[in-house]
Specification:
This protein has a six-stranded parallel sheet. The chain is an alpha/beta fold. The protein starts with 10 loop residues before the first helix and ends with a helix. Helices cover 34% and strands 18% of the residues. Strand 2 and strand 3 form a beta hairpin. It has ten helices and 15 strands. The structure holds magnesium ion (MG).
Amino acid sequence: MEHSSPAEVNVAEADQVQGSPAVYRSGQEIECWLTDMDGVLVHENHAVPGAAELIQRWVDTSKRFLVLTNNSIFTPRDLAARLRASGLEIPEENIWTSALATATFLKDQVRGSGSGNRAYTIGEAGLTTALHEAGFILTDQDPDYVVLGETRTYSFEAITMAIRLILAGARFIATNPDATGPSKDGPMPATGAIAALITKATGREPYIVGKPNPMMFRSAMNQIDAHSETTAMIGDRMDTDIIAGMEAGLHTVLVLSGITQREDIAAYPFRPNQVLNSVADLKNQI
Ligand SMILES: [Mg+2]
């Protein structure tokens, strides 16, 4: 098993790992954890049983960890408050959003290529705060970038402005590819759907930073000084969390407390390293 890739670990084997210490496939102990939020720690605004204990265990044992979300609406502070209301105490410094990943990516681009630091944004405080703190000037005057994030109130005027600025040469960036987001009344159009509209109007595809782009995980790992050989990713989606975790070289843990059912796994041409019913099963391993 020492050199087995994720694709070689079948689900039956992965299930047998339950109860034994969480180790990377080389046998090294996992030092850092990345975890998805929705469907893993919270489900429909309620904490998943075992999630609070897992987080507490990580905090108590000084494990380096980040809770990842493609949602770019909220700042980490906002999200920490919302999670607290769901029964989860997660320090804001342990939350990593697609907006933070996007701001980090763009800051590196500016530093590495000498690109300008002017950005026109469509989004909410999660995105504007992240870009502002990364040193960007937010403007509709001759921006270097158009950065599209998520909002509950997409404005036709703002979308029109974004289209014109991209046609005039601004580079098109999106925080995440999700086509819809949840609301209490049903699905709402999200970043991916608006990006498709802008692409149709401009003929330009965005560079998308959030999951399943492994860039989201790389920036998260840099943030906590994690290395892929000793880092694990927990998620509930095969097509984002698990594939991106695998491509980033991480130990992958699929939990069945969210969108994926056990019988869905076989349809994918890749496998997680471990499959667990929920994070409640994981807390016994660490
Ligand atoms: Mg999820």
